Please model this.
Amino acid sequence: MRTRGPVGVLCAVLALTACGPSSADDATSGAPAIGAPATGAPAGAASSTVPSTTPSSAELPDGEAGFGSRVRLSSGLVISASSPDTFTPSENAYPPAERAVSVGIDVYNGSDRPYRLSKLSVTATVAGEEVKQVRDSARGYNGIVDADKDVPVEDSENFTLAFAVPPDDTRLTLKLYPDGSDGDTAVFTGAV
Model:
């Protein structure tokens, strides 16, 4: 008995559709795929890409992810941080810095209520010392411009932050606190 023809085609179609997305984390839900690369530098920003030297998750302490990863928090928020881009701040940057890095941040609201961006607190450290956020409007780094904005359920907001770093290669750790200093924390780390 042959299975070519309409029956064979129907079986092939059913087999292909059975392999498609099956969970809320898949592309059909609008939620970003966990582990997918994150990107982001302002358009027109002068930058260069840092080589990918992000350690594997097995090499990182618990609760930390490498840049270019996504972290799902118990609140339902999914936060991603792109691989850092180095740049030379303009002469009008504040605070003045010889070298800085920019990181694209994306906050996806997978919770059941709107999320207010003004609740988000961000710190960056190098060798355990906090580094300053750089505001450089000439390069497009203005911080979180829409901090008073609500991120609707199943929607996301993205922005780019910049931080002053030492002139030599080093390791940057970025901590994002969605509810100020309380609750869950998304931590990203890597070489810059």
